[in-house]
Fold this sequence. Notes:
Structural class: alpha+beta
Mean pLDDT: 85
Helix content: 25-40%
Low-confidence stretches: 381-391
Order of helices and strands: EHEEHHHEHEEHEHEHHHHHEHEEHEEH
Amino acid sequence: MYALVDGNNFYVSCERVFRRSLVGKPVVVLSNNDGCAIARSDEAKALGIKMGQPWFQCKHFEGSHGLIALSANFSLYGDLSDRMMSIAGSFAPRQEIYSIDESFLDFSGVPGDLVATCIEVRARVLQWVGLPTCVGIGPTKTLAKLANHIAKTAERKPGSYPSALAQVCHLGAMGKPELDSILAATSVGEVWGVGRRIGAQLVDAGVRTVLDLVRLDPTTVRRRFSVVLEKTVRELQGTACIELDDAPPPKQQIMVSRSFGHAVTRGVDLATAITEFTSRAAEKLRNQHSSAGAVVVFIRTSPFRADDPQYSGSTTVPLVRPSADSAELVASALTGLRRIYRKGYRYAKAGVMLVELQSQYLQQFELDWYDKDAELPTIGSGAGHQVNATPQRDRTLLMTAMDEVNRRYGRGSLHLASAGVGGASRSWSMKQERKTPRYTTEWDEMPIARA
């Protein structure tokens, strides 16, 4: 038996933990550069604000309905997520952290009243962290995910489902007539794994509800659609086909990209941005104990600035040998940037992707044909970026120390020189005019209670 614990309106709920004045008010959290809504309170949803809706389209609600918009504070959200996951994971022998606000719990072999246990999970997360959650329970992961959707809908929209299902919904404990009634009231598009395209095809075929999908023959589904949808149908019928991942498999690609807060024109500014993006990607690479065989770099202008000349460039730079060394990866990324950079354009976004990933424990050796004293030319104006393209000695211990310093004292405490001197002075820094303090991860931003 599985349970899916999911934080309600997670980013907004994290903001409300330290700002109780936000409770009961329409609140949205905005994406990078305050571009669009990536989280909405129930009150904001009631105003008709859609997920991903550009801020300029809903900004008028500030004056008419008291809408409050906040810049994303991912340091806060990540820390509160870790706390929530730790508490939820203590109730079950196995846990799979599915996303920043969701985790599956495997209660196989755990005795007692499962609903009562999940009610206790909700109560403890709320009391210890301050985050409201809903829990869905089912004999498969797909049913647990569906039960979670039903629990949230019953809480947000009274009358859609029986109120007893709000907050904690156990599909595995229902009799067939009650379960069929619930499935018949749920759109097929709400099923985990049924995307927009497949959902439209199912509706065209007359499969409009979850009950319609459950009643299909799995073999026919596989022949007409795909083996993935067949597994979904079998899971809805109660046969577990998706295993719990105690440890998620390593990513096959790692990308870090950003839209700039202001247009960037100078090559030297692009170089500092690419250096920082590559360094962040390298840290993620080392965290999963992998090495990268190539680096992809891209830059582009904004298609929304119709008066600006348009340009988009990307390139892939293979490494001599797979590496997780920040210096080597940055050197390759800057080599790629030199290839694609063009003067005279107002760049709006840049990014780095590490590809051809493999385990760090695989070793590759070859003759080194490069001149170790060769230097690459600089890019842009201002301070030069002299980079040696040749891999040098093993710097694993140095990278480990660098990661530990940044974990202990904050991201960017120790970085490569080509990243420049950080902070708001960087012309490419994100626009975050509405960001709240990082209450739990920065000493100088910790809230102070005064008598």
